[in-house]
Amino acid sequence: MEQLISVILGVSLASAVGFRIFIPFLVVSIAAHFGYFDLNENWEWIGGISSIITFAVATVVEVFAYFIPFVDNLLDTIAIPIAGIAGSAIMLSTIGEFDPLITYSLAILAGGGTAALVKSATSTSRLASSTVTAGLANPVVSATESGISSALSLSAVFVPLIAFILVVLVLFLMFKLYSKTKRVIR
């Protein structure tokens, strides 16, 4: 059961990475530092003070950069592959004891795949927002994404099952939104 919870935790955090790369790492770093959960033994460094400071600075820079119209679109372009890598990394940091083949397969497919999927969808919605509103609505989109990333990260750490339900709900809503924005872009 503990292994299943660690997979749910990893997928939930990877989804949060798709919205903002550094918020989930900051939440995990703080939670690990205060002993709310154990990290994979090779990833215990995330709970250190220097990691918390680094992730906090990176989070502030990332969140504020997304409030600048058209800079946010540029960030989305480079963030899609980075989100896939970060999603894999955060999944590896939280996943339980599995065979290495299963561990890395889950990290790459479930963690990286989920993060890249979410980041691709958010990039598409931001592009639609930029197209329709000339970037004026992008700060609202950015604030929403940061809020969702924070909520998913916190719920993943403290109530993983609810976080997983939120992930399914968010993915469903993103699919619906993607379907609508796809029609707007055409």
Please explain how this structure is put together.
This protein has 186 residues and is mostly helical. It has one domain. The chain is built from seven helices and no strands. Helix 6 packs antiparallel against helix 7. The longest helix has 34 residues, at 100-133. The protein is globular. The N and C termini lie far apart (46 Å). The model has no long low-confidence stretch (mean pLDDT 88). Residues 8-179 form the DUF4126 domain. It comes from Namhaeicola litoreus.
Gyration radius, to the nearest Å?
Answer: 16 Å
Protein structure class: mainly alpha
By DSSP, the count of extended strands is 0
Largest sheet: none
Q: Helical region count?
A: 7
Multimerization state: single chain
Q: Uncertain regions: pLDDT < 50 for 5+ in a row?
A: none
* SSE string, helices as H and strands as E: HHHHHHH
Helix content: over 70%
Average pLDDT rating: 88
Strand content: under 5%
What is the terminal-to-terminal distance? 46 Å
The tally of domains stands at 1
Which word captures the global form? globular
InterPro entries: DUF4126 (IPR025196)
Protein name: DUF4126 domain-containing protein
Keywords: Membrane, Transmembrane, Transmembrane helix
Pfam families: DUF4126
